[in-house]
Amino acid sequence: MIKKSFYIAAASGAAAVLLVNQAFALDQIIRPYQGIRGSAMGGVRMTTGLYDENFFGNAARVTANPIWRVTVLDVMAETNRTTLSTIDDLTSGGDVIQKVGSTAGKNNHARVQTAFPAVYIPHLSEKMSLGFAILTSTQADVALRKNYQLDPEMLTDIGPALTLGHKFLENDALSIGLTTHLTYRMSSRDNFSFVDIIKGASLSPTKSGGEGAHLDFDFGATYMIAGIKPLGFDINTAFTVNNMLGGRYQHFNIDVIDTKIDAKQQPETWGVGLSASRKDLFLFDDSVFALEFTDIGNNPDGSLFRTLHMGSELRYGMLSGRFGLNQGYIAAGFGIDLKFFTLDVATYGEEMGLSVGDKQDRRTAAKIAFHI
């Protein structure tokens, strides 16, 4: 009887531990493009986005780009502390299985994206603006749960994007824009066990993932509230719908890899925002403060607060300081904007759980770009 009770207690304990260990999984919001300026500003982009942020932010903001620009190089790289601390171990040889096992409970994150060649024309006509770029983004998040179930999320997107915007009403108070995306996506499959790794299963999307291509559209609008200028600030509002056709990569058959799995869907999302801006504020130029809710529809089972973003930018000459809160986590960064060259640096916290405060993934990003 005692022996039987012991086995029952042991089994119950093991089940409890297993359930606790399974609690860590990748529940982050996947975005096809991560604008570094917006990242430093707490993730705001609906009412503040400029240039490359027009393509996956708010298409109407293409009318707000201050000057025309042709970009010949635009590269952003992003990672987190866990990846930097373990990459040497994972590439130095030895017992790889043991080293992978030592990362249990942590997320390894990396992202590289480009937006060139690109052209931005704020005044294609008196009221019309245009932006065009070839965009690429490769994101990898690999997390080994403590029960040795592996959660790999690897995505590669590539394709052109064309954004057109038009101004309406008195003083150009209303702007409406539309972005057309033609995108090929390759993505990893879900749920690898540690046993799969031991047996030599490949995490690479080219070996075990899915692929597809689609044509999709983003709609956006901004409206400046007339007659209301508290403390001299212009009040701007925004509304967006991204991936209006549902974000399923099933419109075109492109056989790059040998697979019968569809690429990971990028669902339709909604966003609303409010910002206050001034051309001059003390010593600063073009200052902006924003509050936005984004990724609505791309947050399954998650808290509403995961869609909340607050941020600001203060510019002094060629220097910009940026601060904000992304999903409740501090974000900050700076930019240097010269005539032919820009440098941007950002750090922000991304929520990996379903509720704000569950598990922060602190990320650092840098971008260089050359323009003519």
Strand fraction band?
Answer: over 45%
Shape: globular
What is CATH's topology name? Answer: Porin
Read across the widest sheet, the strand sequence of neighbours is 1-2-3-4-5-7-8-9-10-11-12-13-14-15
The H/E string reads HHEHHEEEEEHHEEEEEEEEE
**Relative helix content:** 10-25%
Alpha plus pi helix count? 6
**Could you tell me the number of beta strands?**
15
How does the helix and strand content classify structurally?
A: mainly beta
In the CATH scheme, the class would be Mainly Beta
Could you say how many structural domains there are in total? Answer: 1
Radius of gyration: 22 Å
Per CATH, the architecture is Beta Barrel
The biggest sheet, with number of strands, parallel, antiparallel or mixed sense and barrel status, is: 14 strands, antiparallel, barrel
> Low-confidence stretches at least 5 residues in length (pLDDT < 50)?
1-23
Calculate the terminal CA-CA distance, rounded to whole Å: 82 Å
Provide structural commentary.
- Strand 11 and strand 12 form a beta hairpin.
- The relative contact order is 0.17.
- A 14-stranded antiparallel beta barrel has the order 1-2-3-4-5-7-8-9-10-11-12-13-14-15.
- It is built from 6 helices and 15 strands.
- It is globular and about 65 Å long.
- It is mainly beta.
- The protein is 14% helix and 48% strand.
- The protein starts with a helix and ends with a strand.
